[in-house]
Amino acid sequence: MGKSTGGRPGLTLATVAVVQFMVSLDLSVVNVGLPRIATGLGFDPVGLTWVIHAYALTFGGLLLLGGKAADRYGRRRVLLLGLGLFGLASLAGGLAREPGQLLAARAAQGVGAAALAPAALALLTATFPTGRARVRAFGIWSAANAAGGAFGVLVGGLLTEYAGWRWVMLVNVPMAAGALALARRGVAAQPPAARGGRPDVLGAVLATGGMSLLVFGVVRTDRYPWTSPVTLTTLALAAALLAAFPFAERHTTREPLVRPGLFAHRTVAGANACNLLIGAAMASAFYFASLYLQGVLGKGPALTGAMFLPFALGVVAGSVLAIRLGYRFAPRTLLICGALTTAAGLAWFALISPDGSFAADVLGPSIVASVGFGLCLGPVVSTATAGVAPHESGTASGLLNSSRQIGASLGLAALGTAAHERTGRTLTPATLNDGYALGFALSAALLLAAVLLALIVLPATGSPARAAGAAGAGGAGAAGGAGAAGGAGEREALPVPD
User: Fold this and answer.
1) Residue range(s) defining the domain that contains residue 77
2) Is the pLDDT of residue 134 over 70?
3) Are both 31 and 133 inside the same structural domain?
4) In this predicted structure, what is the pLDDT of residue 203?
5) Is 104 among the domain residues?
6) Cα–Cα distance between 398 and 378 in angstroms, integer?
């Protein structure tokens, strides 16, 4: 793989910025192309949803293992391996000829991303530990992350309409190659941050399997009711696997994925719970906004993607604002203000109408919600990593990313089901509008729950400079939210009428 003797901070920053842009982009770029993917490869409606979930679940479910591997085997090594796998999987997906081939490629992309995300964040934290250099580094990373997640819908729409759906996969190949070249040249080969036994693979299987079954059970409630034997059995198996995870972590003879005491850390637990709620709310909001634009207002894929541009710019603006305010205010204060602003924007979204327009019903709420979104997510990272030992930084960042991805999957499934029940069987612009409006209202309620949790659990004091330095996490949240957006075919519970 080659060795770097000294490392170059500028190239390290460029590497992780490209990495996070790519990972964020891939969570959303596929969505607008889902209907044409279905036509091109012959997906049925149920199978098509797993083009999204195959990536999101392996990504979210294996992030803990990826974080532990970064700590144990070296961040540079895990980063390079993840980049290689991600690039090859993207190439395979772009060349897929059958549904199973594309799903396997998407799952492999998720595995690669699960290695990239925590390794990149740990590298950035280690390279820029304190001071204004850290603030600047995380600010740049923030903008790259936010742009990747939110612009993915725009890029996906343009590629699908003008180049073909395969390019929503192939677009990752040159980015992965470029990041790999930057990493080999600019990231220093350093001793692993943690020494010990091999990571607990059994724990990773239990966590990933349990979360996958949980999401699968919730997603399928549009076909099998909550009280049906199929749903109850699926959820019971998910609960059993998830309950076995902490037991396995306490009694494993290998290096546990998560030290049991880490969950007892008040700020870590509280920040991850807030992160899960924020991910659930924003994933659902992206999804409902996309379907409202396409199914109610009748916009095409490329135009729908373009209409998400104000949201992308708002997230970037919110991230920059978080940097400036982070020098003066504690992380909890910024988190609460950002979450309240986002909730106000989503509540405004809930006022959509069947005969509305982009200017009247989408533009204003998008700006308010996106600025709040960018403002609150940096402090989540600052809080979740405060007081964590250096050798656990990869694990903590993996846990943070995992909670957001799992929250996005669960939130989209649960709120999508609620919206579908409100919509009913008669699919008209008016009934669809009612369902989407309910979804926005429930998303706003999740943000308010995050605010309440922050008030109760998170400490009122903290380092303002650290909050500013962690503002870059907003892009990861944008990725999680954008991953749910743009696809009329993503979930058959809320179809877009012809």
Assistant:
1) 9-187
2) yes
3) yes
4) 78
5) yes
6) 15
Residue 389: partners with Cβ closer than 8 Å, 6 or more residues away: none
Query: What CATH number is associated with residue 44?
Result: 1.20.1250.20
**Domain count across the chain:** 3
Q: Do both 118 and 236 map to the same domain?
A: no
Question: 145 and 268 share a domain?
Answer: no
Arithmetic mean of pLDDT, 367-396: 79
Would you say residue 492 lies in a domain?
no
Give the H/E segment covering residue 84: helix 75-94
What is the C-alpha separation between 473 and 303, in angstroms, rounded? Answer: 28
| Residue that finishes a domain, picked among 197, 229, 253 | 253
Asked, for residue 488, whether it belongs to a domain, the answer is no
HSE, CB side, 13 Å, CA atoms: give it for residue 183: 28
Residue 466 lies in a domain: no
Distance CA 391, CA 393 (A): 6
Q: What is the pLDDT of residue 379?
A: 83
Query: Residue 4 has what pLDDT?
Result: 39
Secondary structure (3-state) at 445? helix
User: Mean pLDDT over all residues of the chain?
Assistant: 79
Whether residue 238 is found in the same domain as residue 353: no
**How long a stretch of residues is the chain?**
498
3-class secondary-structure state, position 347: helix
Q: What's the pLDDT score for residue 446? A: 95
pTM above 0.70, yes or no: yes
Residues near 113 by beta carbon (within 8 Å), at least 6 away in sequence: 23, 26, 55, 59, 82, 86
In tens, the pLDDT along 256-310 reads 777 767 767 788 888 888 989 998 898 888 878 877 887 789 887 788 888 888 8
Q: For residues 104 and 83, what is the distance between their CA atoms, to the nearest angstrom? A: 17
